[in-house]
Amino acid sequence: MSENGALPLRGKVLTVDTMNPNVKKVDYAVRGPIVQRAVQIEKELKEGVKKPFEEVIKANIGDAHAMGQRPITFFRQVMALCTYPQLLDDNKFPEDAKNRARRILQSCGGNSIGAYTSSQGIDCVRHDVANYIQRRDGGIPSDPDNIYLTTGASDGIVTILKLLTAGEGRTRTGVMISIPQYPLYSASLAELGAVQINYYLNEEKCWSLDISELQRSLQAAREHCNPRVLCIINPGNPTGQVQSRQCIEDVIRFAAKENLFLMADEVYQDNVYAEGCEFHSFKKVLFEMGPEYSSKLELASFHSTSKCYMGECGFRGGYLEVINMDPEVKAQLTKLVSVRLCPPVPGQALMDLVVNSPQPGEPSYQTFIKERTAVLSALAEKAKLTEEILNTVPGISCNPVQGAMYSFPRITLPERAINEAKAKGQAPDMFYCMKLLEETGICLVPGSGFGQREGTYHFRMTILPPTDKLKIMLNKLKEFHQKFTQQYS
Amino acid sequence: MSFMKDISLLVKNNFLSGIDVLSRRAAQITVEIQQGERTNYNKVLDLSSGDLHRGGIKPITFVRQVLAACFYPALLEDDSLPLDVKQRAKILLSECDGGSIGSYTDSSGIAKIKLCVSQYITRRDGGVPSSPDNIFIKSGSQTALMIMLKLLIRSKDSCQTGVLIPVPTYASFTLALEEQGAAIIPYHLCEEQGWTLHVEELRKALLTGRKTCNPVALYICNPGNPTGHIQSRKSIEEVIRFAAEERLFILADEVYQSCVYGDDTEFYSYKKVLSEMGSTISSTVELASFNSVSKGFMGECGLRGGYVELVNLDPAVREYAQRLFSTRSCPPVIGQIALDLMADPPKPGDPSFPTFSEEAQSIKNMICKNTGRIQEVFSELPGISCQPLKAGFFVFPCLHFPPKAIKWAKKRQMEPDMLYCLHLLEETGLHVRPGCEYGQRKDSHHIRLFVATQQDIMEDALQRLKTFHMRFMKEFS
């Protein structure tokens, strides 16, 4: 202490050097620097700064409502009734909505969605989820006790990864993830200090999964870590591929043979567009392969309220189902989820409505089915449109968007552009996307954020903007690409 | 069958198996009652968790009306909703992309709401500036706290990162610390003086802690859970000075800040006190303050809305903090909206104000009456005493077990207060938590009782407790 009693100046307790070193590796491209620049440009536009465009089109994030998709009326009605039960006396609400609301409220403490629920999620919702899964999978039973409601699928995915990450050095858990992948996985693995094991999807074959590639990547990984987990995203993000049944069977056989825990991210399960493509849940295929596999393979499947036809990202609703999890491990999972108290109740309630939607004969059915169909068919149309238009651009090659909500086209970049980017210390596709943003207002995510084969470049673009805006956007992109190619040739 | 037994060590070391036993039994008994297998009481009285609505308190009308309109904007055309409700819903919806609460928001929260929270903080602290850039909204204060722990705790280091935590502390926080791989350094609160915090005790704990780990953070819960104490201004100053001297990051959990009772009690935020302590300290001591919509008279635990305000964080670290906060997409939008309503409730003159103010006041009155009743009933009972409740939702009465009771528990290989709670549940249907879950001085025993419940429920609970306690003390005398 100095003479006048003042304490000596001290350095911070929490500095970049003293903080958890794992945090340094955390990166999340979907909301990274390009989005920050997009937000800045939006501000500038608002302030009247002149630009070669009038609005920023945020085709970077899978947010349907932000792009103008309407919520499903029935769902919102039930939520309003749950929130302000006085409305149960209001005859503007249909009876089936009221019944759903009453049922949900009865299962909440004090009949309020403001009460904590059990950390695994409201009982009756988990039962409804189990029934949904059973119906979807042609009668294969689902145990509500194996269902955990989560704060979006992301929460469930990270929780399972946390559970499975163990060991040190050479015995450290390795997690196999597709390249390209949804960066939640890479970010979480970095944060948890698990080893990321990349397996490449086959761009030439419509982003399909080759078992030989899985084998190669696994073999190589065994040199330096302990591979235990295999993550699959189906339908795929960012690639949009929908795995064939045969492929799913092959993956299951592979995981069983190599003693891997399978994580099946199925949040886009209703988003299937291409002819000849169909969603097959990993669980269904597993059980149809007989007890040799279905009694042994450890599987966790994930779903969410953010995608499909609902697009309710802001609710943070989701669930995971575990199959064949060791009971001791499951007990630990249950404890792990109890730390964060409980998932948001509105998300739980919404999940209940998704798995228990209006049935034929119910008052809300007509409107519901009309709205649902409209959303899904619009998406299918836009998926086709995107593929078609992008493939007319020399230097852009786009695989069919079989499902999910994105296109992930390959772009050919002139040598000069690549060099200029590298000189700036930027990934070439980031350089491209930044230029695109500045000149057209279109915000995409560079492929480098998702992973891609060395020397290839891509971007991820959502198919969510309304059809006419999408057409305009695709044509602007076409113009830009041609200009860019010319400029740097 | 499975190789998966060798799971994450950190997860494996979770404990507190007692939680399951009591809650599970309570659930079983509820089923037994439904099936008509029980005659000694007709329902389980649950005073185990800090859940206002579960305890029968109605949600605040204004809050639920705004939320309903946000869920279903068609209601904005309705005549049934007051004007201020509609105006607020419209403003909030316009802040959402596509005008829908179903859109993702900025990962640290909707800008307008962060601004509203920062203005609330400034008003609360008598003008001390607060910037929305230092505010991160998350799905509950617990989530925000865990992210701060993630920043602070170096779980791979051979020397564990240490966090000082009060004894008693609520159970799920201890779980969170263990999950992150932190070393827990307990400091005891002084029960005899109303659960006050003595810096000497902090000093002692820190000295001990330094022998086995690397202490970096000091966790404070003010107002306290489960203790119901509130720190005096002087106490807060002493703690801040201590943290400055010993180079500790302060984690100030202030979720009960609006639940303060008694004419002579006032809540002082750590931030406010810090700001008034001279520039050397006020510009250097690192502080994270937490608040949430789960407590206070809103009690919206299920909506999951909370925030952290960071003070004096190293700018370089801020960038990483931001990244950590953004990997989980965004906090639930409804929870964010509830925060806005908490930070900016109806004001005098607003159409909803009379109802709002009446609802809030009646909850406060109810809690005051309840604690009065508790003291009355306890004063007539041997072997149970309780420090006065100053703030929060719980009391943490001390049970003075006769030696015979201790012996009986030892034989059953259980903590005496856990065994007490199990029997209390079994025989009277009253569910409260045992002190052993929160930590307590050796050979002391407590129970935690939720007091923010309707008066008749409180009376019922106290009668059940009284009956059981008398019998218990008699049997073991």
From TrEMBL, chain A:
<dbReference type="GO" id="GO:0042853">
    <property type="term" value="P:L-alanine catabolic process"/>
</dbReference>
<dbReference type="InterPro" id="IPR004839">
    <property type="entry name" value="Aminotransferase_I/II_large"/>
</dbReference>
<comment type="subunit">
    <text>Homodimer.</text>
</comment>
<keyword id="KW-0032">Aminotransferase</keyword>
<keyword id="KW-0808">Transferase</keyword>
<comment type="pathway">
    <text>Amino-acid degradation; L-alanine degradation via transaminase pathway; pyruvate from L-alanine: step 1/1.</text>
</comment>
<feature type="domain" description="Aminotransferase class I/classII large">
    <location>
        <begin position="77"/>
        <end position="475"/>
    </location>
</feature>
<comment type="similarity">
    <text>Belongs to the class-I pyridoxal-phosphate-dependent aminotransferase family. Alanine aminotransferase subfamily.</text>
</comment>
<dbReference type="InterPro" id="IPR015422">
    <property type="entry name" value="PyrdxlP-dep_Trfase_small"/>
</dbReference>
<dbReference type="Pfam" id="PF00155">
    <property type="entry name" value="Aminotran_1_2"/>
</dbReference>
<dbReference type="GO" id="GO:0005737">
    <property type="term" value="C:cytoplasm"/>
</dbReference>
<dbReference type="InterPro" id="IPR015421">
    <property type="entry name" value="PyrdxlP-dep_Trfase_major"/>
</dbReference>
<comment type="function">
    <text>Catalyzes the reversible transamination between alanine and 2-oxoglutarate to form pyruvate and glutamate.</text>
</comment>
<protein>
    <recommendedName>
        <fullName>alanine transaminase</fullName>
        <ecNumber>2.6.1.2</ecNumber>
    </recommendedName>
</protein>
<keyword id="KW-0663">Pyridoxal phosphate</keyword>
<dbReference type="InterPro" id="IPR045088">
    <property type="entry name" value="ALAT1/2-like"/>
</dbReference>
<dbReference type="GO" id="GO:0004021">
    <property type="term" value="F:L-alanine:2-oxoglutarate aminotransferase activity"/>
</dbReference>
<dbReference type="GO" id="GO:0030170">
    <property type="term" value="F:pyridoxal phosphate binding"/>
</dbReference>
<dbReference type="InterPro" id="IPR015424">
    <property type="entry name" value="PyrdxlP-dep_Trfase"/>
</dbReference>
UniProtKB/TrEMBL annotation, chain B:
<dbReference type="GO" id="GO:0004021">
    <property type="term" value="F:L-alanine:2-oxoglutarate aminotransferase activity"/>
</dbReference>
<dbReference type="GO" id="GO:0042853">
    <property type="term" value="P:L-alanine catabolic process"/>
</dbReference>
<keyword id="KW-0032">Aminotransferase</keyword>
<dbReference type="InterPro" id="IPR015422">
    <property type="entry name" value="PyrdxlP-dep_Trfase_small"/>
</dbReference>
<feature type="domain" description="Aminotransferase class I/classII large">
    <location>
        <begin position="83"/>
        <end position="465"/>
    </location>
</feature>
<dbReference type="InterPro" id="IPR045088">
    <property type="entry name" value="ALAT1/2-like"/>
</dbReference>
<comment type="subunit">
    <text>Homodimer.</text>
</comment>
<dbReference type="GO" id="GO:0030170">
    <property type="term" value="F:pyridoxal phosphate binding"/>
</dbReference>
<dbReference type="InterPro" id="IPR015424">
    <property type="entry name" value="PyrdxlP-dep_Trfase"/>
</dbReference>
<dbReference type="InterPro" id="IPR015421">
    <property type="entry name" value="PyrdxlP-dep_Trfase_major"/>
</dbReference>
<keyword id="KW-0808">Transferase</keyword>
<comment type="similarity">
    <text>Belongs to the class-I pyridoxal-phosphate-dependent aminotransferase family. Alanine aminotransferase subfamily.</text>
</comment>
<dbReference type="Pfam" id="PF00155">
    <property type="entry name" value="Aminotran_1_2"/>
</dbReference>
<comment type="pathway">
    <text>Amino-acid degradation; L-alanine degradation via transaminase pathway; pyruvate from L-alanine: step 1/1.</text>
</comment>
<keyword id="KW-0663">Pyridoxal phosphate</keyword>
<protein>
    <recommendedName>
        <fullName>alanine transaminase</fullName>
        <ecNumber>2.6.1.2</ecNumber>
    </recommendedName>
</protein>
<dbReference type="InterPro" id="IPR004839">
    <property type="entry name" value="Aminotransferase_I/II_large"/>
</dbReference>
